[in-house]
Design goal:
alpha/beta, about 260 residues, single chain, 9 helices, 4-stranded parallel beta sheet
């Protein structure tokens, strides 16, 4: 029952999802997604129970906040938004986020607080432990004052812990966006820890703007062309905590984003 309710909550947060819809194909898709997620959550709960029931000496080590069910669902969604990135993450070709200086402070299945170690030994914080959602709300509320989905396309560069992505999706349901992600390792880790990609509607895209993906600049140019072909003006939605980092400044200086 708990698994069914959690899966239903997540599915209902997806753009265009409505369990009361009379659209038969839409209902079938929604029920299929819910069934897959429910089965995965049940399997995960069983693994947690088995682990708790095992003797401490023989129990295999298991991270209770590594949500396999969320990860598998997110990978299926990521295949629509960024097939190459989804394939690389599924194949384990993305380095560990910790190895690239990221630390995650987990809060159950909520979007975590993230910090990044800088070359000089300092740290940049991607949202406060308790105030991250409020910060994202303020940033998107300010952005919304001049953003018109009929005239503009939202471009989120280096969103950090993806609180901005979640808040944008809540504020503009059904409006696609372009995400330019310089840290695939951070995104891969987040997919294990929380659930947020289901909020992105069809037409959204995620570009891994990272040297490990040789054709990322071509993908970015194509995305910029598509935006202009729809007679939309790109509008940058930035996380002020990441926008000052050197790798992000390099991205913001690109012609496609200027």
């Amino acid at each position: 029952h708990i698994s069914k309710n959690k899966a239903e909550d997540i599915c209902n947060e997806s753009p265009g999802s409505n369990l009361q819809s009379k659209d038969a194909p839409g209902q079938l898709l929604l029920y299929s997604r819910r069934a897959l997620l429910t089965a995965a959550i049940c399997e995960e709960l069983k693994a947690d129970i088995d682990h708790a029931a095992s003797t401490l000496g023989n129990a295999p080590q298991r991270d209770p906040q590594d949500f396999k069910s969320f990860f598998e669902m997110s990978l299926r969604l990521l295949e629509k938004f960024s097939p190459e990135l989804a394939s690389a993450i599924a194949a384990g070709k993305i380095p560990a986020a910790e190895a690239e200086g990221f630390s995650l402070h987990l809060r159950f299945e909520d979007i975590p607080h993230v910090s990044k170690l800088l070359p000089d030994g300092g740290k940049v914080q991607f949202g406060g432990l308790l105030s991250g959602a409020d910060e994202a709300h303020r940033i998107v509320a300010e952005f919304a004052k001049t953003f018109d989905p009929k005239q503009h396309a939202a471009v989120l560069v280096a969103p950090g812990n993806y609180a901005l992505v979640e808040e944008f999706s809540n504020s503009f349901p059904g409006v696609p966006c372009l995400i330019v992600e310089p840290w695939p390792s951070l995104l891969a880790e987040l997919l294990h820890r929380c659930c947020f990609l289901h909020r992105l509607p069809e037409g959204s895209s995620i570009i891994a703007a990272n040297g490990a993906f040789k054709k990322w600049r071509k993908s970015l140019s194509k995305a910029a062309f598509i935006i202009k072909s729809h007679h939309l003006e790109p509008r940058l939605l930035l996380n002020p905590k990441t926008a000052e980092l050197p790798e992000v400044k390099e991205l913001l200086a690109l012609e496609e984003l200027s």
